[in-house]
Amino acid sequence: MVSLKLQKRLAASVLKCGKRKVWLDPNEVNEISMANSHQNIKKLVKDGFVIKKPSKIHSRARAKRALEAKRKGRHTGYGKRRGTREAMLPSKILWLRRMHVLRRLLASTGKLRRLIGTCTMTCT
Q: Could you tell me one molecular function GO term of this UniProt entry (predicted)?
């Protein structure tokens, strides 16, 4: 068996992929072993003796199922938490959310303008 290390490396370069993605036709070993340049490898690719293997599929089915369970509230107990309460959901963010809700409520009722006006009068 002839070593096709060089040919595989050149093919990987030509096909713009890794060496593990290169398939060399085992029936055409003599033909492939003669190729020692990019030009020759390109010809072999065109003839179909050298092929780029398709990338393997990485299924996300398990990840989706786990995420669905998380949404339902599973796997979220004390034992699963990595970090303090403050790290998980900072009190500052809670405060900001609360303020935004209150401001929206005031704005919808029309009292926000009056509040701001009175505040500026008293503050100055």
A: structural constituent of ribosome
